C-alpha cells in the first residue's frame, strides 16, 4: 500500500497505525516513510507491506495494490496512481468520486475526509479518517482492533483527543464497510488474504 | 514479547536492558530518536543509576564517554554522518586507549552536498580507527546486537569500541515486528563491565599519553592484535547469543547456496533482505547464484569469504559508499581476501545519499553480470543522465 499526502497531515502515521493494527490481526507488517518528511506542506509518501510471512523487502513500493490519498492537492504534482496494479484501487479524500475516477482512470473509493475531520476534530487532519476508510473497505483490520490501536497511539496526546480520533475512525470505517463487497468483487489480494485466515 | 515498534525504540529498549552506566549523546538526523527514546526512559526513572549526560556536540559527547569509560563505566552513544566524523578524533583515541564504548550508527551519507539520507559512507570513514564494525539487516537484528556489542567490546582480549551500524531511515524509521528481549535474558547473557584498569581519584592512571618513537609503535601493534583476537571473540559471542536467545544470525558472514554457485552476490545492511530474495528467485529459475551477507566488517572476515566463494567464477559486491581514487571499501577487502583465486569482482555502487534501490534494479544488476554484459570493476547503477560542469 502507498499513502500520499502532505507533510503534517499524518501520512506517515497512517501507514504506521495500520502496520500496528494489522500485526494485531496476525499479519506480518512493515511500514516506512519517504524520507525527510519533516517539512510541513511538501508532498510525502509512506509505504506499508502486509503479508502472511515476514516482510523482507525494504524498497519503496513501485507497484502498489492500493493507494490511499490523504490530500487531493498532491495529485497536481505527484503521479499518485503510478504503477497501480491491475485490479487495484485508490481510496481518496475527495468529495466527488466519479469525477476523480475519470481523472485518474482507475477505480476510486472516495470519502470526504476533510469535512469529517473538521466536524470531529476541528482540524483538517485526515489520517485517521483515511485509515478507518481503508480498513472498513478492505476488512484488513477489525473495527475493535483499530479502535484500540488508535486509542493507544493517541494516548500521549490525552484521553479526549484519543477518543475523538477513535470515534472518527469508527465513523469512516462504517461508511466504507458498506462498500466492502464492491471492493471484494475487484478480486484483490488483500480480501483474499483476510478470507484465508 | 513480539511487538510492532520503530527501529529507534528497538535500539533504545535493548540498550536499556544492557544496564549502561553512562550515556552521552548529541542529536543528529536520523539518529536523534534513539537517544530521545533513551532520554525519556531516563526521565521516567527506568535506567537505574545510569547517568544520562547531554553534550554541546558529538565531539563533547564522545569526550565525556572517554572519561567515563576510563573510570570504569559501561558507556553508550548513538550518532551518524557529520556527527560521527566530528567524533572521529575522539573515537580514534578511545580505540587507542582501549575503551569499549558501544555506539549505534544510524548510517547516513557525508557532506558535501548535504544529505540526511542513507548510505554507508560515514561508518566507512571510520574503517581504520580500531573500532569493531558490524551491520544489521533488520530491527530484530539491531535489537539483538546491542547486548552482544557490549559483551564483545568489553571482553578483556578485545577492549575496543564497537559500532553497530543500522541503515538510517530504512531501519530507524521503519515499524516492524520485533521480539523484545527480557531483562532476565540480557542479565544472564551480559555480566557487568569489569575493567582491567580503571581511573579513580585514589588510584590515578594516565590514558592515551604522549608516546615517543620509543614506545608508540608497540601500542599501535597492540590495537592491531586486539582486533585480530576479536575475530574469535565475536564468533563465540554470536554463537552464545544463538543458544541463549534462540535466534541464530550466523557468524561473521552468512553464506547461502554458494557451494555450487558460479556467481556469489554480497551485500551488507538493510539491502540484505531484498538481495537475498532476488538471489532466491534466480535460484528458482535454475541460475547458479549464491548469496553472502557480510555481518562483521571490522575485523574483516577474509578467510570466511575466501572459503565461501571458492567455487565461484564471479563475485558481485553491492557497494553503498566510495573510496575516491580506489575500489569501494568492501570490494577492496573482498579482493584482498581472494587475491590468490581467479575470480572476477564486480562492484556496482548503488543507493548513495538515500537513492532507493528497487528490486528490479538489483535483479538486472545480477543478470547483466551473469550474461557477461558488464566488465568487472566499479560502476554505478540507478544513476540519472547528468552533465558535469567542472571537467
Fraction in helix of chain A: 40-55%
Largest sheet of chain B: 7 strands, mixed
Average pLDDT level of chain B? 97
User: What's the total helix number of chain B?
Assistant: 12
The neighbouring-strand order within the major sheet of chain B is: 3-2-4-5-7-6-12
Key words describing this protein structure:
heterodimer; A: 197 residues; alpha/beta; Pyruvate-ferredoxin Oxidoreductase, domain 3; six-stranded mixed β-sheet; 8 helices; 6 strands; globular; B: 391 residues; Rossmann fold; 2 domains; seven-stranded mixed β-sheet
Task: Explain what this protein looks like in three dimensions.
With 197 residues, chain A is an alpha/beta fold. Chain A has a single domain (2-180), classed as Pyruvate-ferredoxin oxidoreductase, PFOR, domain III (Pyruvate-ferredoxin Oxidoreductase, domain 3). Helix content of chain A is 44%, strand content 17%. Chain A contains eight helices and six strands, in the order E-H-E-E-E-E-H-E-H-H-H-H-H-H. Chain A has helices at 11-24, 97-104, 113-121, 127-138, 143-153, 159-177, 180-184, 189-196, and strands at 2-6, 28-33, 43-51, 66-69, 89-93, 107-111. In chain A, helix 2 links the parallel strand 5 (89-93) and strand 6. The longest helix of chain A has 19 residues, at 159-177. Chain A starts with a strand and ends with a helix. Chain B has twelve helices and 15 strands. Chain B folds into two domains: 2-245, Thiamin diphosphate (ThDP)-binding fold, Pyr/PP domains (Rossmann fold); 253-380, Rossmann fold (3-Layer(aba) Sandwich), CATH 3.40.50. Classes of the chains: A alpha/beta (197), B alpha/beta (391). The interface between A and B is medium-sized, with 22 and 27 residues.
